[in-house]
Design goal:
This is Cytochrome P450. Its main location: membrane. The chain is an alpha+beta fold. The protein has one domain. It contains three helices and four strands; from the N terminus they run αααββββ.
């Protein structure tokens, strides 16, 4: 049970990142919104909190020069539905510009 609980969280984050990388406009929109959410972290579910913090502090690029449309979204069968191929990302420090 413990394995399934932790695996589902990491798998959910991996799927969410995969979808965001395949849709760069959505990634930018999410990063712009996440700054406010991070400040109110106590209201977020654990997976949302992880995503919010990762989006707020980093830009993300696919490793090996892959383009978003080349990202393999094939599912692997098992106790949980995870990606057949692991998602390999390069984190780049993100410095949002605050506009008031």
């Amino acid at each position: 049970m413990l394995t399934a609980g932790s695996h589902t969280s990491s798998s959910s984050v991996e799927w969410a990142f995969s979808e965001l990388l395949k849709n760069p406009n959505l990634m930018e929109e999410a990063q712009a919104e996440e700054g406010g959410y991070v400040l109110e972290y106590h209201l977020l579910l654990p997976i949302e909190l992880v995503l919010a913090q990762l989006l707020y502090h980093f830009d993300w690029e696919l490793a090996s020069g892959l383009k978003p449309e080349q990202l393999d979204m094939t599912e692997a069968n098992g106790l949980t539905i995870s990606k057949k191929r692991n998602l390999h990302l390069i984190p780049i420090p993100y410095h949002p510009s605050f506009v008031e």
